[in-house]
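Workshop exercise sheet. Pairs work together: one partner reads the sequence aloud, the other fills in the structure field after running the prediction. Swap roles for the next sheet.
Pair: D.N. / O.F.
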Amino acid sequence: MNLYEHTIIARQDASPSDIKQLIEKYSKIVNKNDGEIVKTENWGLLNLSYLIKKNRKGSYIHFKIKCNGKAIEELEKNESIDKKLLRYLTVRVKEFDLKTNYFNKKDDFEKEK
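Structure field:
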């Protein structure tokens, strides 16, 4: 089984219930194809570097996935036709960094030190 980090950017007008439905939908696709979601992180609404489909912001969702390549193909096929998503990116990694949460507020980050 390969290790992947997969990030999707949903439209800025997506409600929290829409985000939850997206997470459930794509988790089911991975699980159906003999994969495993190790960790899911909701990074929240962030500014985009440039306009994507007339959106200045996007809701970022990050998955850490253990699966084979077929599950990723199926996942990306479904994401390419989803109107709620702006972009997606999959990167194969050697190991997961499960300790660091990069999108904590600065106050939370200083408390951990």
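Discussion prompt: The chain has one domain: 2-94. What would you look at next?
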